[in-house]
Amino acid sequence: MSDAPAPNTHNTPKSMDAIMALCKRRGFIFQASDIYGGINGFWDYGPLGAQMKKNLREAWWQDMIMNPAWGRKGPNGDRVKCVPVETRIIQHPKVWEASGHVGGFNDPMVDDKETKQRFRADHFFGVFAKPFSTSWDLETEARNFAKQAAESWEVFPVLGIVASTAGEAEAHLIEHVKGLCKAANLSFSSLERVSDHIIIKGRQADAAMLIHIRQIAPDRLARDAQRLNIPSPFTQKKGTLTEPRQFNLMFSTHVGATASADDKAYLRPETAQGIFLQFKNVVDSTRVKMPFGIGNTGTSFRNEVTPRNFTYRSREFDQAELEFFCHPSESQDWYRFWRDFRMEWWQSIGLRGENLILREHDKDELSHYSCGTSDVEYRFPFTAPGFGELEGIAHRGDYDLTQHAKHSGAKLEYFDQSRGEKLPNGSTKGERYMPHCIEPAAGLDRGVLALLCEAYTVDPSRPSPELMKFHPRIAPIKAAVFPLVDKDGMPEVAEKLYDELFARFGRQGFIEMDAKQSIGKRYARMDEAGCPFCFTIDGQTLTDQTVTVRDRDSGSQQRLALSQVSAFLADRLGG
Length: 575
Ligand code: GAP
Fold this sequence. Notes:
alpha+beta, 5-stranded antiparallel sheet
């Protein structure tokens, strides 16, 4: 709406539309089955996106498995040890009964009988509105109104909005301002946030509307008398919503040709279970000793009811999960260790500053298996001013191993030779126990999305104002080599440099060489793709064997000996 500005609750978030347009234009992310009109909840990666996601996965693999926690010592004083597994998407169907996903992986869903659309009952926000005069005391009015909306079931929302957070719901408010004003006979002037409250001001003196947004508790939707007075988030009509009903998020399939009920199997909803299933084999086939971690990356599937916000909530996505097993007495220390390291790790690859938080879950938020969870949350443009989950770090106790031991009959306890009472010969008697498990569970697609949003920068002072400020480790294009002009011996020098850089850094990402178009256009193209360094061969190169290196973020250039380019890059990229 051009005449209704966004509420000034926070620095204007980056435009998701602009980010998505750049992703398509430059080949980061495409809608799956695009030429058929797409398929909801599924996304493909183009050349730049595929390489970027590979870089993210490899950074995770390196820092969580090959050199866990950057070689730091854990709370037990030893170096952290981790090994990988790679497990299948389809497992024995009993796995998901044991894990709790068959019985418990349900979201309460509400259907709109008119539009046949469905939403998660716990993702439903109501907008409450009441007439207000700007001459009244805002704090008192707003406080009383918020209390009424929370406590009185006589006060109903005027709008329904599907959103994950109040911030996201607030961002959607803008789409409804005209309708709200019309219904209240208010001629719209502005939508404003004054201290912590939202008011819509009218053109008439003092005339305004006080707005309060709050989540509609699923139990309100469960009661007919309440639900009939709550507007549908799709049509804003009352009386068309069903009571919340359970909906299992696992995709099912059949294994084998008969497709009978006995052959039913599920696509995994998380990579974590594969680790528990192979815990015993890993212990028996390697020399790992408690405490240690097992990492697994790969694709998971969830039949999300409302896939949205680009790749944020997809139906097919990749996870990178570590299950770190330890003695129960050390589990709280390891939980804190991994929680803090994961936050640091996301910062180290470019998610900096106020857009990243670590949030400890309240007790009533915990999953069925968890006795402590923290989320690393990122302020995505669509959650701003709030945050959305990027990774969960859960203390799962011994839930999973105990469940699988019970359901499979396998003995999954660990015999720890280093524990137990000291024997006269100086050794220890050993202790048998069910290990506890700390799980840092990251989403690679959400990770890519957060990195894209963080990197996206608009700088109107530049000839081509959109650029992607990726951390060099994540950038899909690591370097570009440009001959200033496509003649006078410059292309030959450029090609030689390109060959050298490709041989050394080509495994980490693209090395580009481009001789077409003006140099300004070539720089702009690389800025948009997030290439951190461009090396240009010019007339001076031919006389003194130096090149210019251009820094993407500042646009500044310095001269560097041709022979130093490789070392310069190695310093910044590693390798
Ligand atoms: N094993 C625990 C587990 O799977 P989760 O919080 O459900 O925990 C872990 O998922 C991570 O996987 C999330 O933090 C998120 O990054 C990613 N994820 C979960 N559902 C997703 C979806 N529908 N689309 C994209 N990423 C998702």
